[in-house]
Amino acid sequence: MPDTRSPATLALHAGEAPRQAGAPVTPPPQLATSFFTHPAAVGFSANDLAADAPHFYARWSNPTAESLEQRLAALEGGEAAVSFASGMAAVSALFLDRLAAGDHLVLSDVCYAGVAELAQDILPRHGITATPVDTADPAAVGAAMRPNTRLVHVETPANPILKLTDIAAVAAIAHAGGAELSVDSTIATPLGTRPLALGADYVVHSLTKYIGGHGDALGGAVIGRSERMAGLRRQGLIHLGGALAPFNAWLILRGLETLAPRMALHEANARKLEAFLAGHPKVRSVLWPGSPRHPQHALAQRQMRNFSGLLAFSVRGGGAALAARLAERLQVISYAVSLGKTKSLLFHIPTDDLLRASFRVEGAQAAAYRDWAGEGVFRFSVGLEEADDLIADLGQALG
Ligand SMILES: *Cc1c(COP(=O)(O)O)cnc(C)c1O
């Protein structure tokens, strides 16, 4: 039965243990690595694992990770979830579970750098080919499909230039070609977009970002149909081993409790910072899906109920020098990588470096990236500080 309560309530209560007098309202993290069992109850091999088997060994499942998985599945409107030690552990497990030698992957040409490098460097060593395409253009996805394409992987909004993909359109193309669609929805969060309802087969999250929200725990998750998630647990956790530590699962559950109010404030602050940057004489362009200035704002309005707190801006020349100046002068905003935490983070990503080391696209695709990003983008994860303090900080540092 799908849980139809609103997201703010699900973020607090989905997957709660049965209420009994004397039981803790906030359960402690369960740190045990093994659980009492009986020889008749469980087979020793992962291949014998029943979906409803009791907890046995913490890499296979544990109660704290299970609570988190149930809450994430409810928030995404999915049947089941599997949690991982990081977002990359989630993506790599999904790719290795769904793809085999001879298979083909189509993925966003702009996506998390680690995913782009995994697709270019590791998958080909196992006989899996990958084609990066501009998934903002559904026709380009259609043109990239081959008879052996098994998976289409998109990131929307995409890190770092917040390019969007029309999930429903790309899901239809993937399915018509006999492939599945996975959507990295880390930046949108379940408060913004529910990819499964739009036709995706899998939703992937880096829980390290908005869902954990406090910048103190790495984690990842995949949400999808129960039968597929059972297979992913077997391959991704039991055999590849990237299980989420119970203490991190507990921290992420705690962060998740405030996801709805945090996302509302991230969005409100991003709206003010986008307007400030758009009017700043040193700024060439600023990208945030919630702004009518974003080239895909109409799609954002269709597909996102919350526009999240990540924006990207480029400046009129001298990005690297300005980055050094910001690293020295910012007092409230931290010059640091990552995104989606309570505190504001800002980091400069030079276009040449990203195209050479990570995306490795050429010709029209490289030109399209340059059109959005110029020489480089400042990725700005707008935090929960008072917006006026962020504007003042950025204003004094930009000069
Ligand atoms: C950070 C991030 C990842 C990787 O997650 P980790 O938890 O750092 O491994 C994947 N996708 C997106 C969009 C990200 O921002």
From TrEMBL:
Gene3D superfamilies tied to this protein: Aspartate Aminotransferase, domain 1, Type I PLP-dependent aspartate aminotransferase-like (Major domain)
Cofactor(s) this protein requires: pyridoxal 5'-phosphate
UniProt record, GO biological process: transsulfuration
Keywords, alphabetical: Pyridoxal phosphate, Transferase
GO molecular function: carbon-sulfur lyase activity; pyridoxal phosphate binding; transferase activity
Gene Ontology cellular component list: cytoplasm
Residues bearing the modification N6-(pyridoxal phosphate)lysine: K209
Protein name: PLP-dependent transferase
Lineage, broadest ranks: Bacteria, Pseudomonadati, Pseudomonadota, Alphaproteobacteria, Acetobacterales
